[in-house]
């Protein structure tokens, strides 16, 4: 697939800096530099975000960092907060844990915050980049008919999926990752739809699946890179997935890779819900 070039002809300097950060971090990682081994994951993803944003700007002539810097800066702390929601659920799911973390509390908290802050920007930057592919940018489907009953069912189903792991025993909750990875999609996108903006349901009602397809592909690519870079890092995470957990690609059991595409969709919907909420609050007080 070939990308449409609507922006400039070359990559901006910060894009090259991002690529250099990835390359130098990998060299220093395999050279055994302790600080890089500890912070390799956030280093690599910080470089990736700069590189991906540079590609988006080259492709479209606008990007998250260059054209919407306040939005980008807001996304960083929100990314930490969003991921802490999933860390809370992991107290019940017990699907992953961390090892090799710094013993000093401040360094450990810095590592957590830095790594968590890269999650949403990475997913959304990659999705924006994917939307520029001709194979996606020209896609159309038959418009969906969204009825009130569909929205109500989605809300109830999403709420049920998110509440279920909290109500069962820890033994049962260990098997309930899927409802969590899907729950926010079904719970919040109907609300985004009702707010009239930044909703996948609204896109599908218009016969436009591009955002959905780009998010699914973003989940695939980012998921692979997360596991690839995590495998070599000094401070990393391990999985305890109960179904076929011994069949792995890097540290991730193969079935776990199915969770990355819906997680990318979930990332967009959570971010859209916050943005729509800000717009609604401004409109109601305007």
Query: Strand share of the residues?
Result: under 5%
Give the distance, in angstroms, between the N- and C-terminal Cα atoms.
Answer: 45 Å
Q: What is the number of beta strands?
A: 4
* Helix share, percent: over 70%
Shape descriptor reads: globular
Sheet of most strands: 2 strands, antiparallel
Order of strands across the widest beta sheet? 1-2
Summarize the helix and strand pattern as letters.
Answer: HHHHEHHHHHHHHEEEH
Walk me through the structure.
With 286 residues, the protein is mainly alpha-helical. The protein has one domain. Helices cover 70% and strands 4% of the residues. It contains 13 helices and four strands. The chain has helices at 13-30, 34-60, 64-67, 69-93, 105-117, 119-130, 134-137, 148-167, 170-173, 177-195, 200-205, 210-232, 260-285; strands at 96-99, 236-239, 248-249, 252-253. Strands 1-2 form a two-stranded antiparallel ribbon. Strands 3-4 form a two-stranded antiparallel sheet. A hairpin with a 2-residue loop joins strand 3 (248-249) and strand 4.
């Amino acid at each position: 697939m070939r990308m449409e070039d609507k922006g400039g002809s070359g990559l901006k300097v910060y894009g090259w800096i991002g690529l250099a950060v990835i390359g130098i971090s990998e060299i220093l990682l395999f050279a055994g530099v302790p600080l890089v081994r500890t912070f390799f994951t956030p280093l690599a993803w910080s470089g990736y975000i700069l590189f991906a944003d540079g590609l988006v700007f080259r492709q479209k002539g606008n990007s998250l960092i260059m054209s919407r810097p306040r939005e980008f800066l807001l996304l960083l702390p929100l990314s930490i907060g969003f991921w802490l929601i999933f860390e809370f659920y992991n107290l019940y799911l017990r699907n992953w844990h961390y090892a090799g973390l710094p013993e000093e509390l401040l360094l450990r908290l810095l590592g957590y915050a830095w790594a968590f802050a890269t999650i949403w920007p990475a997913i959304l930057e990659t999705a924006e980049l994917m939307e520029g592919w001709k194979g996606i940018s020209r896609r159309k489907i038959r418009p969906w008919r969204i009825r009130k009953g569909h929205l109500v069912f989605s809300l109830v189903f999403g709420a049920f999926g998110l509440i279920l792991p909290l109500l069962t025993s820890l033994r049962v909750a260990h098997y309930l990752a899927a409802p969590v990875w899907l729950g926010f999609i079904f719970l919040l996108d109907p609300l985004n739809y009702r707010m009239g903006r930044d909703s996948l349901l609204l896109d599908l009602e218009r016969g436009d699946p591009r955002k959905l397809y780009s998010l699914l592909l973003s989940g695939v690519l980012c998921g692979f890179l997360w596991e690839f870079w995590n495998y070599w890092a000094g401070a990393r995470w391990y999985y305890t997935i109960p179904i076929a957990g011994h069949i792995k690609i890097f540290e991730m059991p193969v079935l776990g890779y199915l969770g990355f595409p819906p997680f990318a969709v979930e990332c967009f919907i959570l971010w859209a819900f916050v943005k729509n909420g800000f717009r609604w609050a401004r409109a109601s007080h305007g």
